[in-house]
Amino acid sequence: MFAERTIAGILDPATLLIGGVLGALLEAFTQASMMGIGLGILLPPFYGVPFGLGGIIRLYTDRKYGKEFFREKGMLAASGLIAGGIITQVIMSMVLVISGLSK
């Protein structure tokens, strides 16, 4: 795409422009997050369940404890869960490589 200096062979320019305009309108006039929609399209379907549950928990805590709760405690807990998951995946990968089960 960059070498040929064209997007016509790889992307349909009209579809790209229509999608960009619709995304900008949705971002400007609704509460829909384009980052969330983009991640939903990009990531495999089994990530949707944890994201959905996280959104429901966030909605519940916002209503019960207020929006400041997330800024003070919720973000720290969410960061810990993400970091713990990543560390676990790294350790599991190292164990698989050491044990010779990975090819």
What this model shows, in words?
By secondary structure, the protein is an all-alpha fold. The chain has 2 domains: 1-42, no CATH class; 44-103. It contains 4 helices and no strands. It is flat and about 45 Å long.
- Fraction of residues in H or I helices: over 70%
> Mean pLDDT across all residues, rounded?
78
**Unreliable sequence segments:** none
Sheet of most strands: none
**Gross geometry:** flat
Query: What Rg is obtained from the alpha carbons, in whole angstroms?
Result: 20 Å
Helical element count?
Answer: 4
Overall domain count: 2
Tally of strands: 0
Structural class: mainly alpha
Intertermini distance: 33 Å
Instruction: Assess the beta-strand content as a share of residues.
Output: under 5%
Give the SSE order as H and E letters. Answer: HHHH
